Amino acid sequence: MSIGMKDVEHVANLARLELSVDEKEQFVGQLNAILKYAEKLGELDTDGVEPTSHVLPVTNVMREDVVKESLSNEAALLNAPDDEDGQFKVPAVLE
């Protein structure tokens, strides 16, 4: 598989990019080099290699979900600049 000038022009059009002829030729060369490298990686013997999503064994570290007493409404509003009817009062943002 190789990338041609039409492919680069199509992708540039989708990305709404205006490329000069020199830039298009440069991208054709660079993209073909990337594809050539990917094909070379396909030659590797990966039999017996377990698929992974990360190079290191990563696990989630979770704490136990323990029910705790929450703040009372009065304590939550203690440092509020303004409150009304047991709720934070903030300036209106919609007219």
From TrEMBL:
EC number(s) per entry: 6.3.5.-
Annotated transmembrane regions: none
Catalytic activity: L-aspartyl-tRNA(Asn) + L-glutamine + ATP + H2O = L-asparaginyl-tRNA(Asn) + L-glutamate + ADP + phosphate + 2 H(+); L-glutamyl-tRNA(Gln) + L-glutamine + ATP + H2O = L-glutaminyl-tRNA(Gln) + L-glutamate + ADP + phosphate + H(+)
Keywords: ATP-binding, Ligase, Nucleotide-binding, Protein biosynthesis, Transferase
Listed InterPro entries: Asp/Glu-ADT_sf_sub_c, GatC
GO BP, one annotated term: translation
Molecular functions per Gene Ontology: asparaginyl-tRNA synthase (glutamine-hydrolyzing) activity; ATP binding; glutaminyl-tRNA synthase (glutamine-hydrolyzing) activity; transferase activity
Keyword Mitochondrion: no
Protein family (similarity comment): Belongs to the GatC family.
Subunit (UniProt): Heterotrimer of A, B and C subunits.
Function comment: Allows the formation of correctly charged Asn-tRNA(Asn) or Gln-tRNA(Gln) through the transamidation of misacylated Asp-tRNA(Asn) or Glu-tRNA(Gln) in organisms which lack either or both of asparaginyl-tRNA or glutaminyl-tRNA synthetases. The reaction takes place in the presence of glutamine and ATP through an activated phospho-Asp-tRNA(Asn) or phospho-Glu-tRNA(Gln).
Official protein name in the record: Aspartyl/glutamyl-tRNA(Asn/Gln) amidotransferase subunit C
Source organism of this protein record: Paenibacillus herberti
